[in-house]
Amino acid sequence: MELVIRNTANQPIYEQIYSQIRAQIIAGTLRPGDALPSIRALAKDLRISVITTKRAYDELEADGFLYTVAGKGCFVAEKNLDLVREHQLKELEDHLAAAAELAKSCGLSREELTEMLRILMEEQP
Amino acid sequence: MKVLILKDIYVIWRQMKYFLVMILIFSALPSGFNNTFAVVYAAMLPYTALAYDERSKWDQMAAMMPYSARDIVLGKYVFGWLCIGAAAVLSLLFQAVLALLGSRAFSPAMMAMAALGGLCILAISLPVMFRFGVEKGRMAMFLVIFLVCGTAGAIASIAVSGNAAKFAFQGSALVILLIAAMVLTAISIPLSQRFYWQRMG
Amino acid sequence: MNAIELSHICKDFGSFAIQDLTLAVPSGTICGLVGENGAGKSTTIRLLCGALRPDSGTASALGVDVSSPEFLAAKEDIGVVLDEAYFPESLNAVQVGKIMAATYRRWDQALYERYLKRFDLPVGKQFKDYSRGMRMKLAIAVALSHQPKLLVLDEATAGLDPIVRDEILDIFNDFTREEDHSILISSHILSDLEKLCDYIAFLHQGRLLFCEEKDRLLEEYGIFSDTAAQLECLLPEAIVAREPNGYGGVRALVKRELAPVGWQLERASVEDIILFLVKGAKNA
To answer: What percent of chain B has pLDDT over 90?
Structure first.
């Protein structure tokens, strides 16, 4: 698991942890069933407050990204398909927006771009 | 409590060497009051230990460690008794050796009286130190020593009339001193504990 | 269970008084105690360890009332490091070790020797010949070697060079990997506290002004650094205290939630926050 805490960002630390772990779960870097470091171990390793790591983990649990087994620790939950889909749709949107901008800059019309997309999708298995 | 006595021994250790030398020197002096001086000096060692405690602020540290107030207070008494006892025994041994070698007189009774006198000095000066601190306690201690030695010296010089009278006098003096030491100590220890407890508030 | 609980503690010294001090440090956390000299930090620590009795109020450490006879046994689980190491000066490290071994039931001699080695402390040297840094290191070695559950540190890192301080802070950080281990640390070196603490408690003239989660504190405030004119655009309640630079610029501590969204505020350090709060309290 990769985690980088940036002090310069104005984003609260618990939010940074939350979003980074969430992103990795959605991206699949962290797979369902993977064990996460304990709240305390994580806090001490990163040199941050235990309260903050607890807050991040609590929110991840509330949002369904991880679950706790008493006495054993925290584990990544089964992928929440809606959220994954949402993430992928967003990514798609970003790609398409970039494509649209690129098209504009080289003078491609909407119909030409749509045609290009149709051909590309036909080529997909 | 043992550990606190150990600590005091460690602290006083450097002085101990001079202490031993002193026992030797004073034991070699002509018999009389002089060679009991080591015992009186021993009665001052708890004061020295307390002074070091206060100076290094160990007393503040000790209040936060698992020592009971009883251990802290009683420890100083026991340390004092050990020092007096050791001084008395060593002095006597030395005198015995010198007496065997030469024609020196040998007076265990005198040493016993000095030891009991030392106990009385302890019993009076320690509560003052626990109540008012080491500085004021030191003044009380020297005052008591002065009084005790002065009185003893005066009585000794008066009572040097005849051998028979001397032994009788020594006998009763020992008994009186023993009772005085026991009574004073019995009052002194609870008093010191009370003062220590008050000071920690 | 709370590692430390102070409830309505009052202690009057005449010229100075601790007033109605209520503080709780949850088990497994690190609480930093800050305040000016004379604010009452050392007094609070003494009250907490039973070295001083309060006029009123109760104190308990590790669930045991400080004024009860059971507290004597509880002291076994409390490691104390004061602002100076108060060992008898003619002793050396070995003798100190022997005394501590006979004092504490859970004394770990091997651990003590490892610390002595790690801190490079000469074993034969008398304590009075130690430098300040060495004295603190010995005190810390002693405090850790009897395996306490609660560490109480009064200015324990003052006088240490930054490299050693960092190492010591690491040791304290590791100490709380166990969930029943807690620390109360008072310090002037606010950057140390920022690295280490879960909570920050601020004492000012004998009163506890606040005890807050450090991270929430950092989230709550921001530093505004721009022209004085710009500062006036903010709600007055948002500005805690300000520091004009004499050239039309100003630096101010601002409450983030009362500032307009999107305004660029710099991150405030614990030191910034405390200094501005004291300024604000002084001017109030």
So the answer is: 24
CB within 8 Å: A49 and C173: no
Contact assignment for A48 to C222 by CB distance below 8 Å: no
Q: What is the number of domains present in chain B?
A: 1
The residue range of the domain holding B174 is 2-199
- Decide: A and C in contact? Rule: 3+ Cβ pairs under 8 Å: yes
* Domains identified in chain A, total number: 2
Chain B closest-CA separation from residue C32 CA (Å) = 20
User: Hey, of A8, A52, A53, which one would you mutate to test binding to chain C, going by the most C CBs within 10 A of its CB?
Assistant: A52
A75-94, pLDDT tens digit by residue? Answer: 998 876 677 678 778 888 99
* ipTM score for this prediction: 0.84
The CATH class given to the C2-205 domain equals alpha beta
Convert chain C into a string of H (helix), E (strand) and C (coil). Answer: CEEEEEEEEEEECCCCEEEEEEEEEECCCEEEEECCCCCCHHHHHHHHHCCCCCCEEEEEECCEECCCCCHHHHHHHEEEECCCCCCCCCCEHHHHHHHHHHHCCCCCHHHHHHHHHHCCCCCCCEHHHCCHHHHHHHHHHHHHHCCCCEEEEECCCCCCCHHHHHHHHHHHHHHCCCCCCEEEEECCCHHHHHHHCCEEEEEECCEEEEEEEHHHHHHHEEEEEEEHHHHCCCCHHHEEEEEECCCCEEEEEEEHHHCCCCCCCEECCHHHHHHHHHHHHHHC
Higher pLDDT, B23 or C220: C220
B6–C88 C-beta distance less than 8 A: no
pLDDT at A45 > cutoff 90: yes
Q: Is the pLDDT of residue A49 over 70?
A: yes
Work out the minimum CA distance from C93 to partner chain B, whole angstroms. 12
pLDDT in tens, B85-103: 988 888 888 878 877 877 6
Residue with tokens 């000012």: C204
Same domain (yes/no): A72, A85: no
Which residues in chain C land under pLDDT 70?
Answer: 283-284
Does the distance separating the beta carbons of B13 and C52 come in below 8 Å? no
Residue C202, token pair as written in the block: 């601020």
What's the CATH number where A49 sits? 1.10.10.10
pLDDT-derived band at A55, boundaries 50, 70, 90: very high
Residue A41 domain boundaries: 13-76
